[in-house]
Every structure is written in C-alpha cells, then in structure tokens.
Here is the input.
Amino acid sequence: MVNVSIIIASFNRQEILINTLEQLSKSKYPIHEIIIVDASEVCIRSSQIPSDIRALTQIISSVASVCIQRNIGMAKASGDYIFICDDDIEVPDGYIQHVIEYLIRAPEVSIASGLVMERNANGDWSHSFPVGRRLGRWGRHLFLLSLWTERPVNPLSDPNRIRVSGWPMIRDLSQDVNRTPIYGLGASISRADWLKQANYDPVLDPAGIGDNYGLMITHPMSTDIHVLSTCYVKHHKSEVARQPSILSFYRRCLALDYFQKRAHGRRLLFRIAFSWSMVGNVGLALLHMDFRKAWASLKVIMLCLINRNPYWLGYKKGEQRIRPEL
Here is the structure.
C-alpha cells in the first residue's frame, strides 16, 4: 500500500477547515499524514482536530501565502503521493482510494483529480459553466478567451487545451478519464517525486491567484492532468478571507501573462493573442456595463505591452507575495 500525504494551506477559515478534516477522517483509504500549514491570525489547535486523525496531523505556522504554505507542506511531506487539498472542499470517503487506485494502475501518470464541483448560477452543483448568451459564446471564441463548458466538439481537434492567447479551453470531461493541461488542483493527487521537482510560485499574491496554472506550465516535467469523471469533490468556495472578484480577475490576467513569459519568453504571437483577448474582455465588460472589469482589462493590456507586469518585475527583483492593485 502506498502512503498519501495531505497538504492543506489555510487562512482564517478555522470552522471550514474543521469540516474538511472531519470529511478526511472518514476516508476509506488510510492516510499517512496531514500537514496543515496555517497562516490564520489564530491557528487551529490540535484539540480541534478529529481524534482519529489527530496523531497523523502536523500544524505548521506560516506567513499568509497559499504558494509558500503549499511549498512548506510539500517539503515536509514524506508520502509516496501528495494530495493538495483546499481547506473548503467536501471530500467523499471513497475519493482518495479511487484516485490512488487509478494512479497505481497507470504508473506513467503523474497527477490526477476527480471532478471539482461548484455551485452554478442556479445553485446546482456542476463542473461545467456554460456561457449563457450565444453572443457571449461567440465573443469568447472570437477573442480567444477561456471556455469551461461541455459542448459538442470537433473530433479532429483537442477539446482540452491552452489557446494561443494563454487561456485554457476545457470542452470535454465526459470520458471516464480525461486529459487536460490545466485544471483546478485543489483536489489533486500527485506522485511526490514529480510534484517536488517544482514549486508553487511565491511571487503571487497571498491568495495564490493563478497558482495551479503556473505550476502546470512551468513544471520542468510538464504533463497533462488526468481528470476522472467517476469521482468528485464539492468545492464550497468559502467567502471567508476571499478577495473581491474584480481583484481576483485582474491578478489572474496578470498571472497568466507572467507565467507565459516565464515558460516561453516574450513570444510575439502570444503577446498579440493575449492583448486581443484582453480587448475582448474590455468589450464584453462594457456590453454588461461592468466598467470596473473594463478598466481592469485595459490596465492589464497597458502593463503587459510595456513589460511592467508587477509579477514579472517582482520576480526579477526576487520579491515575494506581490499584491497588484487596481
């Protein structure tokens, strides 16, 4: 039997974290260790951890940075596999066993995840997020923006890929096993020897917006994520300690430009396509009278065209936890 280390980075979500730990304590697959890297103002106490996993759990204090916290946990982990677990997900008791059994059957696969379900606009749990209006769908295609929705796809093209603009397009997760270059990693299980060849980038803001994207495209042993539609977790996306959505949007766009630059340099084709996609974001935001999003998109265009992306500048100076402001 292989050992699984669970790493949880948390910040001021004590009650939610305890709920997640209670879910993990019911796991059918034996847990080797749980490493909680807590940046909360008041850290979780050992006495608050469910008794049947208390002896397996380490609590480590840290500065507030999802990336730094996960890196600390990865360095401490001693298991054969590492489960990067968000602090606000609901993990069914058979989830870890299901993913681990798949990884054992497929030794060439480095990282796998079940479906990550979130509440959609109707309040239903879903892993797909369709763009409502036809104009919106056409606009996202025209401007090479991200798509995260299952729709009929061309069998001759790859349904799950990164567009030339850098934005992910995930169109088909209908098979039992689906390959995609980008996916949310908050419920992923990786081979420890593969994951430890890279780090989450500490230059990102404390919330780590764009961290999973960066890990996957800058990893020296780049690979696809295998997403299993036969199991899932529920991501509750707690609003506790979550930054405003407009700021997350702004920082996500900057992070995409930054990681593409780190991975591939200043490619002219990407710069043109990414700028075009941000022009599309300006137009779509204005169409919905969202002037703050339009301004955020315009500011991203200006900063990236003149090579003044705050993340890139911070990286060149060796700085960490950069907080770009609108």
User: Anything to note?
Assistant: Residues 245-317 form one domain.
